[in-house]
Amino acid sequence: MENMNVLDRFSSIIEDDLKKQLKKMVKDGEGYHPFAGDVLRSLEEYLLRQGRRIASSSTLMVYNGYTSQIDDRITRAGSSIELYRHSILAHDDIADAEMFRRGGKTLHKLFEEGYDEHFGIGTAIFAGNMLYSFSLQTMLQSGFDDDKLKDVVNLLASGYKDVNESQILDLLFEYKTPTVEEWSAMASKRAASLFRASMLAGAILASAPKRDLTLLEHASRHIGYAFDIQDDIIDTFAVKEEYGREPGGDLLKRKKPLHIILAMQKEPSIASLIEGGTDVAEVDILRIRELIRDCGALDEAKSISRQHGKEAKELISLTEMDQGTKGSLIALINYVEESLDWYR
Question: What's the rounded mean pLDDT across residues 53-73?
Fold first, then answer.
C-alpha cells in the first residue's frame, strides 16, 4: 500500500502543475476569442477529472529512480505526458462513440451541447489536436537539455503515430474477427505505446544507462499488454458505479478484445451473438459474459495478463533504478494483477 501511495503523491504533484498550465492556456484562448476560452475551459475540466494518472506518474517514478529527486522540470514533463494521453483519449472517444469518460461527458459530447453532433465531433477533433500541440510545447519548455528534449519529443511523435495505427486496427476489428496474433500486433501499439513513451521519457531525462533504456522499453510493452487486457475485462464485467459508464460498451460495438477472441475460438455461439447481423442487446451481454466465464476464456486472458506482468517485473528488477522505485513500479503491476480477481 505504501508503494501505491507514491503513485498518488506523484499524481497530485502532476495535477497541481497541470492546473497552472491549463490556466495559462485558457487565458491565451480568451485573448484570441471568447469561444476559444470556452473550449479550453472544457479541456481544463476534462483533464482535471479524478484519476490516478498512472502513465504520467510513471514518468516521475522512473526519473526519481535514477536521480532520487522530483524537480520542477520533471513535473512539467509529467504534465506534458498527461496532455499527450488526453489528446489520444479525445479522439479515441470519438471513434468509439463514447458518451462518458471518468464520470463526465466525453469531449465531443460536451461540445455538442447547444449545437449538434457535427459541431461536437468537429470541435473535439481540433481540440484533441490542440492537446497534442500543448503536450509538445510543454515538454519543450520543461527546462531540460536540448538533446534530451529532442529525443523525448521524437519519442512522443513516434508513439502518437503508433497509437493511431493501433486505433485503425481496433476499428477494423469491429468488422472482422482477428486472430490472437493480430490482436497482439494491434495491442503492441496501444497502451504499450503510451507506457513506452511515459517510462522512457523519465529514463532519458534522467540520463539512465543505455542498457536500462532497452530493459524499460521491453518492460513497458509488457505493462501495456497487462493494462489493455485488464481494461478490456473491466469494460465487459464491471458495474457502472466503479467504471463511471455503462459496462459492455465494447460488446455493443462488436469490438474484439483478447478475452472475446479467445471465447469466440472456444465457444462458437458467442460469435453468432456478436456477429449475427443484429444489434447486441443487454440480455445478450449477460449471456456473453456467462459464456466467456464458462468456456475458460476469461481465465485464459487473465493468465496472459499475469504473464506479461511477471515479465515486466523481472525486467524492472534488472535495471539500476533504486529499490524503492522498483518496488513502486512492481506494486503498480501487482495492483493490475489483483484487480483481475475482482471479475470472476
Answer: 97
**What residue type is 252 in one-letter code?**
L
Q: What are phi and psi of 86, to 5 degrees?
A: -75, -25
Q: Looking at the whole model, is its pTM more than 0.85?
A: yes
When pLDDT is cut at 50, 70 and 90, the band that residue 134 belongs to is: very high
Cα–Cα separations (whole angstroms), residue 73 to 116, 140, 217, 238 = 41, 10, 22, 38
281: helix, coil or strand?
coil
The cell 534522467 sits on which residue? 206
CB atoms closer than 10 angstroms to residue 157: 13
Dig out the grid coordinates for 125 from the structure: 477533433
Contact between 67 and 7 under an 8 Å Cβ cutoff? The reply is no
What CA–CA distance (Å, rounded) separates 24 from 27? 5
Per-residue pLDDT for 217 more than 70? yes
For residue 290, count CB atoms less than 10 angstroms from its CB and return exposed for 0-12, middle for 13-18, buried for 19 or more. Answer: exposed
Strands 100-101, 104-105: parallel, antiparallel or unpaired by DSSP?
antiparallel
- Amino acid at position 131, single letter: L
Q: CA-CA distance, 168 to 121, in Å (whole number)?
A: 18
> How far out from the chain centre does Cα 91 lie?
12
Task: Give residue 240's pLDDT band: very low, low, confident or very high (50, 70, 90).
Answer: low
DSSP state of 279: P
> Residue 190 pLDDT > 60, yes or no?
yes
What domains can be seen in the chain, in order of their start residue? 2-342 (1.10.600.10)
- Nearest CA-CA partner of 75 in 87, 89, 57: 57
Is residue 43's pLDDT more than 70? yes
Return the pLDDT at 51: 85
Report yes or no: 245 and 253 within 8 Å, Cβ to Cβ: no
CB 337 within 8 A of CB 309: yes
DSSP H or E run through 274: helix 268-274
Beta bridge partners of 104: 101
The answer to which of 130-139, 187-196, 207-216, 273-282 has the lowest mean pLDDT is 273-282
